[in-house]
From TrEMBL:
Belongs to the ATP-dependent AMP-binding enzyme family. Its EC number is 6.2.1.-. It comes from Streptomyces rishiriensis. This is Cyclohexanecarboxylate-CoA ligase. Keywords: Ligase. It holds the Pfam family AMP-binding_C. Residues 22-361 form the AMP-dependent synthetase/ligase domain. InterPro entries: AMP-bd_C (IPR025110), AMP-bd_C_sf (IPR045851), AMP-binding_CS (IPR020845), AMP-dep_synth/lig_dom (IPR000873), ANL_N_sf (IPR042099). One of its GO terms (molecular function) is ligase activity.
Length: 502
C-alpha cells in the first residue's frame, strides 16, 4: 500500500466520520491510539464510537445538538469526540485546566445543551464546577462512556461544510472567542501537517498536548491519513514520560518550543546516549522558535526539528519539511500547502483557504477579522521569502503565546488594575527559550500604597480572582511610571519589552 497515495485519497473525505470509516475499512487491525498498556485499533475506534454515539442518542443528542466537553487526553476522549462526529453534533471542546471564568463563558456563548466532564481530575472537581455554573446535561466521561445499540442511529452526516466545531481562543480581549470550524477545515489543516512531515505507516507519533486543543483533530487527521499510531499522555511531564516514549518506540515527538526545550534539557543530563533511541523528528508550532533552539536540538539530540505556524482559526498554515535547508528550518515557519493562499498587506499576514475557519460566534468579530476579499487578518507581521517560506517578525495583536497557548494581556491587566497596590499595569510577553514567551507584569505602584506587590502575592490574588494557572505571570517588575506617548497617553509596550528583554 502506498502511504502517500492513500493519504491524498483519504484527504478528500467529506467528514471526519467518513475519514475514520474509510481508514478502518483499509486497515482495521492497525493500532491508532496507545496509552499506558491500552490500545485501540482503527476498527475498534470506529466500533466503540458507534456504540457511544448510540448511547448519546438515547440521551437526546441529535444532529446539530451543541455538546461541550472538558476532558483530558485519553482514549475515551477521542472515542467520545468521534461519537459526536458520527451523530453530526456540534462539539465545543474546552481545555481541561480552564476554570469558572472561561468555562462559564464558553457554555453560555455556545448555548451547550450537554457538558461532558471528567469528574474529579488532578484534584479539581469538574462536576461541581459544572453544577456551580448551571451547565445543562452534565455527565461524566472518564472511564465510562454512554453505550447503546448502533441500530438506533440515524445516517451519518453527508457533508462536511457545516459548522460542527466551536474552539476557544483568548485572542486580544479579556473574553475568549468562539472559533467556528467545519469537518472539512479540520481535515484540510491536518492534511497540511501530514503531507509536510513526510510520515509513513511505520512511524509512531505522540500527543503530549490537550486533546481539546485545536491540535487534537489536527494530529488525529494525520493518523487517519497515514495509518500510524500515536501515544497519548494524560499528564505530560519529563522525565516520567520518557518510559512510554521508549516503550512504544516513538519516532515523532514535540508540540511547541516548550517541548523542544524540555527534551533538550533531559538530553543534556546524559549527553552520551540518545534520549529516545527510536526518535528521528521533533515537530510542532504554536509559539515562536528561537533559531538557537533548532541548532541545539539537531546538534545535541541528533534528530531533525521542523516547526510550523498555526492558530485556532487556521490549525495549520505553514510547516517546515524535513528536507528543508537548515537555514530555512531555523529561521522560517516553513511553506504553505497547496490551497493555502498567503497575502502580506502592509506587513500583516492574511490567509485564505479551506483550512481557514468560518469566522466567530460573534458576527461582529467575524466582520472585523476578514477583509473585503475574504482573507483572514491574522494580526501577525511577516514576509514571504523568494523560496516561498514564511518569516514572522512580530504581532499586531497584543497576545502572549506561552507554551503554545494564547494568553490575553488585557485579561490579566483588568484583574490587576483592581489591586489596591497597583496604580497602573502593563502585561507583556518576553522571549523565553523554554516557553516561547513568558508573561511579565510591569506595575506602577499606587500612590500611598503600603508594602510593594510581590510575585507570590500577585499570583495568589489572580488565582483568587479566577485566572487560570497557565496564565499567571512568571515575572513581576515595578516601575515609577509606565512609558506613554504624548497624545493619548497610551502605554508604549515596545519600550517595556526592549527594557526587560535585555
Amino acid at each position: 500500500m502506498n502511504d502517500t497515495a492513500t493519504a491524498h485519497e483519504l484527504s478528500a473525505s467529506r467528514t471526519l466520520w467518513d475519514l475514520l470509516v474509510r481508514r478502518a475499512d483499509r486497515t482495521p487491525g492497525r493500532r491508532v491510539l496507545l496509552q499506558d498498556d491500552r490500545a485501540l485499533t482503527f476498527g475498534e475506534l470506529r466500533q466503540r464510537a458507534e456504540r457511544v454515539a448510540a448511547g448519546l442518542y438515547d440521551r437526546g443528542v441529535r444532529p446539530g445538538t451543541v455538546v461541550a466537553w472538558q476532558l483530558p487526553t485519553r482514549l475515551e476522549t477521542a472515542v467520545l469526540s468521534f461519537a459526536l462526529a458520527r451523530l453530526g453534533a456540534v462539539q465545543s471542546p474546552v481545555i481541561p485546566f480552564y476554570r469558572d471564568r472561561e468555562v462559564g463563558f464558553a457554555l453560555r456563548e455556545s448555548k451547550a445543551e450537554f457538558f461532558a466532564v471528567p469528574g474529579v481530575w488532578r484534584g479539581f472537581d469538574h462536576t461541581e464546577m459544572a453544577r456551580r455554573l448551571g451547565a445543562k446535561g452534565v455527565f461524566e466521561a472518564y472511564d465510562e462512556l454512554p453505550d447503546g445499540d448502533p441500530a438506533v442511529l440515524p445516517p451519518p452526516p453527508a457533508e462536511g461544510t457545516s459548522v460542527r466545531w466551536i474552539y476557544w481562543t483568548s485572542g486580544t480581549t479579556s473574553d475568549p472567542k468562539g472559533v467556528l470550524h467545519t469537518d472539512r477545515s479540520l481535515i484540510a489543516g491536518g492534511s497540511c501537517l501530514a503531507h509536510a512531515l513526510r510520515l509513513t505507516s511505520d512511524d509512531v507519533g505522540s500527543m503530549a498536548f490537550p486533546y481539546a486543543h485545536i491540535a487534537g483533530p489536527d494530529y488525529t487527521v494525520m493518523l487517519l491519513l497515514y495509518g500510524f499510531p500515536a501515544v497519548m499522555f494524560e499528564h505530560f511531564a519529563l522525565p516520567d514520560a520518557l518510559e512510554d516514549y521508549r516503550r512504544h518506540g516513538v519516532t515523532v515527538a514535540g508540540g511547541s518550543t516548550a517541548f523542544y526545550s524540555m527534551f533538550l534539557a533531559e538530553q543534556r543530563k546524559r549527553p552520551e546516549a540518545p534520549l529516545i533511541p527510536s526518535l528521528r523528528l521533533l515537530a510542532g508550532g504554536g509559539a515562536p522558535k528561537p533559531p538557537e533552539v533548532y541548532h541545539a536540538v539537531v546538534r545535541e539530540m541528533g534528530v531533525q526539528l521542523t516547526h510550523g505556524y498555526g492558530m485556532t482559526e487556521v490549525p495549520m498554515i505553514t510547516m517546515g519539511a524535513p528536507d528543508d535547508t537548515p537555514e530555512n528550518l531555523a529561521t522560517t515557519e516553513g511553506r504553505p500547502p497547496e490551497g493555502m493562499r498567503i497575502r502580506v498587506v502592509e506587513g500583516e499576514v492574511r490567509l485564505r483557504g479551506e483550512a481557514v475557519c468560518q469566522g466567530y460566534l460573534d458576527p461582529a468579530q467575524t466582520a472585523e477579522a476578514f477583509d473585503a476579499e475574504g482573507f483572514l487578518r491574522t494580526g501577525d507581521l511577516g514576509h514571504v521569502t523568494d523560496s516561498g517560506h514564511l518569516v514572522l517578525t512580530g504581532r499586531l495583536k497584543d497576545v502572549i503565546i506561552r507554551k503554545g497557548e494564547n494568553v490575553s494581556a488585557k485579561e490579566i491587566e483588568d484583574l490587576l488594575a483592581a489591586h489596591p497596590a497597583v496604580g497602573d499595569v502593563a502585561v507583556i510577553g518576553l522571549p523565553d527559550a523554554e516557553r516561547g514567551e513568558l508573561v511579565c507584569a510591569v506595575v506602577e505602584r499606587a500612590p500611598g500604597a503600603g508594602e510593594p506587590l510581590t510575585l507570590e502575592a500577585m499570583s495568589s490574588y489572580l488565582r483568587a480572582a479566577g485566572l487560570s494557572v497557565h496564565k499567571l505571570p512568571e515575572r513581576l517588575e515595578s516601575v515609577d511610571a509606565l512609558p506613554r506617548n504624548e497624545t493619548l497617553r497610551k502605554v508604549l509596550k515596545y519600550k517595556l519589552r526592549e527594557r526587560f528583554s535585555r
